[in-house]
């Protein structure tokens, strides 16, 4: 699962016993060698779906980490790309990985908690990859409201969401076991490390985005194929600020 350049088991254990923010500060130097960084396959699929809608003026990568989504936005946005994350360590790595230059858009890095995003309506595209498991369901309204506030009218908040594994399948039990272990850890240990795989459910998320004021569209990311019943393995959620 990890390359030789990735974190050791001991480092992972230390990170897992820290807060979410501190855990990412510690993981940052090796994050790009872990499977937690969003894969190029996912990034390319999302970029491909967004390309016909662009170019965009200003893009925001919410929970940018080391800048996986910033790479997508740099290709799609003409004027300005901003990555926001609460981990200073992750932002340092992102800054180092994304040198500004050429005719590419201006780059900005903002350290902020995504549950209280500090932006006025100034973006026409927001994306987020691989981070929603870090938000408790009760925290999502604040997260979605902050993104809504950051978008200009007509702006879009776009992210991929994989279909959950079939109930009873080996991956289903793996995710179930992970979430259960995290719940026990968070009952017994402070500070909490919030990361759950099974809390970000499509129907809940669509309802919450709609309550926030977005108009939501779902489209299949066909690159990832279909499940035996015909449903897409991965969808793109597009939440439009009307
Ligand atoms: C799994 S990493 C994903 C990073 C990147 N988006 C990617 O796809 O590779 C999750 C990121 O979310 C950030 N994060 C988690 N909770 C956050 C919060 N409340 N506010 C801001 N950033 C947060 C972490 O610091 C981390 O960089």
Structure description:
- There is one protein chain.
- With 242 residues, this protein is an alpha/beta fold.
- It folds into 2 domains: 36 residues, no CATH class; 167 residues, Rossmann fold (3-Layer(aba) Sandwich).
- It is built from 8 helices and 7 strands.
- A 7-stranded mixed beta sheet has the order 3-2-1-4-5-7-6, sandwiched between helices.
- The longest helix has 19 residues.
- The radius of gyration is 18 Å and the shape is globular.
- It starts with 8 loop residues before the first helix and ends with a strand.
- The mean pLDDT is 96.
- S-adenosylmethionine binds next to helix 2 and helix 4.
Concise description?
The chain is an alpha/beta fold and 242 residues long.
Per-chain topology:
Blueprint: H1 9-16, H2 20-27, H3 40-50, E1 56-62, H4 68-76, E2 77-85, H5 88-97, E3 106-111, E4 123-128, H6 140-150, E5 151-162, H7 170-188, H8 202-212, E6 215-220, E7 234-240
Helix pairs in contact: 1-2, 3-4
S-adenosylmethionine (SAM) binds at residues 20, 24, 36-38, 63-65, 68-69, 85-87, 90, 113-115, 129-131, 134.
């Amino acid at each position: 699962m990890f390359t030789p350049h990735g974190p050791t088991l001991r480092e992972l254990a230390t990170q897992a016993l820290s807060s979410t923010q501190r855990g990412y500060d510690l993981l940052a130097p090796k994050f790009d060698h872990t499977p937690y960084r969003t894969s190029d396959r996912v990034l390319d699929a999302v970029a491909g779906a967004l390309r016909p809608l662009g170019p965009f003026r200003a893009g925001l990568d919410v929970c940018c980490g080391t800048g996986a989504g910033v790479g997508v936005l740099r290709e799609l946005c003409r004027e300005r790309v901003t990555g926001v994350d609460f981990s200073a360590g992750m932002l340092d790595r992102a800054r180092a990985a994304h040198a500004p230059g050429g005719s590419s858009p201006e780059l900005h890095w903002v350290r902020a908690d995504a549950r209280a995003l500090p932006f006025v309506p100034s973006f026409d595209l927001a994306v987020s990859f691989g981070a929603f498991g870090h938000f408790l369901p009760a925290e999502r309204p604040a997260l979605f409201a902050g993104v809504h506030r950051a978008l200009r009218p007509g702006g879009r908040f776009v992210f991929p969401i994989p279909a959950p594994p079939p109930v009873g399948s080996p991956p289903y039990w793996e995710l179930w076991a992970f979430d259960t272990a995290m719940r026990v850890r968070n009952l017994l240990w402070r500070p909490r490390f919030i990361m759950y795989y099974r809390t970000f459910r499509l129907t809940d998320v669509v309802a919450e985005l709609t309550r926030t004021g977005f108009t939501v569209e779902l489209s299949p990311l066909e690159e990832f194929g279909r499940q035996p019943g015909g449903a897409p393995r991965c969808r793109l959620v597009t939440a439009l600020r009307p």
